[in-house]
Amino acid sequence: MIVARVPGNLEVMALVDLLNGLLNAAATESVQTQLDTILACKTEEQLERAAGKQANIIEMVRDMSKLMCRSARPILRKKGHGDGGLRVFSQVLRELEVISALEQMSVLLGSYQYVLWMGPVADNKQARSPRRQSVRAMPASVTVAYIHHAALAPFERRKRACFRTVAFLDMMLREYAKSAGAAGEAWSAVEATRAPLNVWILGARDGEEGWLARQGYCEDAAGLLSGETVRMNLHLLGDVEEANIPPGRRVTVSVSAEPPKSKPDLVVCLHADERLTRWMPVLAEFLAITTRDKPVVAFTSRCEAEAESAAGLFGRLGSKVLLCSVRNLFSGMAAGPQAMYDDHGWVSAIQGSLFTTTQLQDHTKAIDLSSLEQPPPEASSPKEAEGTERGQRNPAVFWGILDLKYDPNLPLENRVKVLETGDGRSSKFSGYGAAIKESFKADKKLEETLHRAVLVENKKLTRDFFVEGGYGHLMPKQVCYRRSYRDDLAADIINGLDLQSSDGCCVLKLCNRARGAGCIPIAAADLDLALERLLTLPDNVEAWLDGQDSEFPVECKWGCFQEQIRHWWSNECPVFVAEELCKSAPVEQEGKAYDGTMRVGFSLHRVEEPAELEEAEEEELPFYSTTANDQEPAVVFPGEAPPGSLSIEWLGGYWKLPAEDTTSSDLSAKVISKARQGTAPVDARQLQEVYAALGDSVQLVFTNASLSPQTLLRRYPDMSELGAFVASRLACSMRLRDPTKSNMVLGLAQASLSKGQGPCKPFVESYIHRNFGVLEAMMGRWAKSEPHFVKAISVMPTNATARFLLGMQCLESEHWKKAIVQFESALQLDPDFKAPWINLAFAFLRLGQWNNAIR
């Protein structure tokens, strides 16, 4: 189906040509056959759902949107539009919409919609009959709207989800009125001619719905309605300040703390939690209305079990359930099937009640509404329990932790801040966190381990991968500098982090240390002096070591500034980071408030290829099938995990508490959390919000394709020594699996490092030589390892690990006294280093110095 080009602007002509290509692709027999299957659902069946699937109408919109993207991809690539993926297709559709006012373009776009929904039109007698249009009440543009929503960056999609959920509810209630009977005049009337819809957002909060309203997002509530006049009156009922909310074009917005006199058509309780308890008297009045125009009450939930609990609760209160746990196309994760926790992910709607207002209020007092906040865990079937007992545990490729700050009172963009990642095998779990490790051991097993040490151990690389995955909003503001002191370094950090005054604080961090080592909260006023002490090494390290108190490693208090100085001096990473100081909402423990750090556990699992379809099922030709002439792969939407990718399971979370409460004058003691100082449980509702905020960030970070030696070496052109360092760390992570390849990658890093210059180059050179020595020692060639350890110390005399390894070489050579010197030097530079203590005792034993060995 070719439409003649129109003369005019070259860009318009290019878009016309592109749209012609999209039309032809959509009109092919293979695409039309799949559309026949997708759109075959009868009107009365659209709200039904098959086992393991969502409502038919949701599956239909998702399948159709994916087929549109997949059929368009070859054309987009051919016309020079990048990879032709989801975001590219969305951008092209937006460009087409911009020029849709042109008559020729309007005709083309109309033809494209017709081909998708009804089928191609041809003049010959063999033309296929138009499809029966079973979704006339649903906007034909809903698939395009869904594509645009799914293509958004994660945080923008999450923000848009709030008021787009109202638009989705309106659409679904119109579908309900069409297939199951009237739900009220507002949804049985013709959409284009009905009066503006009156919608209340019950329990609106200033930091959430109010914050979004001030940014103009309320207009999305009418996003699926036609017309340019006012189509909806939106009222935010709750704790919202009215100031600075812009006037809407098609949505008017009003605010109050008490219910207005006007009557709503739809009352929406977003993320029905404690808001439900507070506003139950208002809901009871609406549910008790017996007239024909009684309002619909709707709820959104972050997990399916919670949504079903909400619908079940009101079913017991005599309400008519219109929508029960329906997946929201316009949720934070765009209804992704792998997203078990999702902002506004599931919606339910009810209407009326068999009881009076007084009876409803009495019933709700007898029902524990808090049960909605913590859905009961799903019980394992006897067969599943038997499988676990037999060792048939769920295979995982990685399990780890995220440490983060969380404050539900802050605006959406600041509520969750990820501080670092970690490997579950080496992370500490105590107190309320012990159950996470036990749960993993009981239910899962590591197979085909995903090796990501270079990622989880480097705070700079971790942050960069989160940013590249579209989740930069989850990371604290961060600046990165070489570990070399200069007079204006503190000023650069203050400006880079936008610290407002000398009272502002930040956190200095070594990129590759864990468990608080090298982590220093510091006031801006003290920053310059601290940096000078941390980054200025002794002129003569050997003389400095000789002058140190031999008792310091024994008497050193964990986390004191003197110990932190030594952590910084002995660190081989050429850069450090400074981050904004993020705080959590106060955690109450024994009458005191603490600034805790939340630790959540997760496991990653490889998604397997689906089992072969039964022969009868293959004949149905689902939308993602391919034929010999149609091998274009499906386009991946948010929250999907195609075969070979990773899926995530959340294992739970808990609070790690600092040594002192928020009233302490010791900044480090009240900020740095240590599980051994105390733990506290995390409310299940808060965990759900954290999981939803994290979305698919962990999967994206751990599948980032930029972990090859070559890409790591090229990643930081302005800090070439950092690229050499992370490539060297990659080499270290593979030395047990493939020592030959490890040696080769170390050589690549060394060659890259030799081309650059800079004050921090010796740190990386020392690291590379140390690891060349380790490779020799692993092969039992201790004599060949010695020159590497000596070289590592000569270029970086403060390298505690290199001194320890040289001590180990001395042990192998039975040079006990030389070994003792190196072990004691290593402990002076890193008192928290456990291995030198053990081997120091061994050396004393070989010399017969029993008292020293015992000490």
UniProtKB/TrEMBL annotation:
Residues 369-391 are annotated as: Disordered. Residues 381-391 have a biased composition (Basic and acidic residues). SMART domains: TPR. Keywords: TPR repeat. TPR repeats lie at residues 800-833. InterPro entries: TPR-like_helical_dom_sf, TPR_rpt. PROSITE patterns: TPR. This is Dnc protein. It comes from Symbiodinium pilosum. The lineage of its organism: Eukaryota, Sar, Alveolata, Dinophyceae, Suessiales.
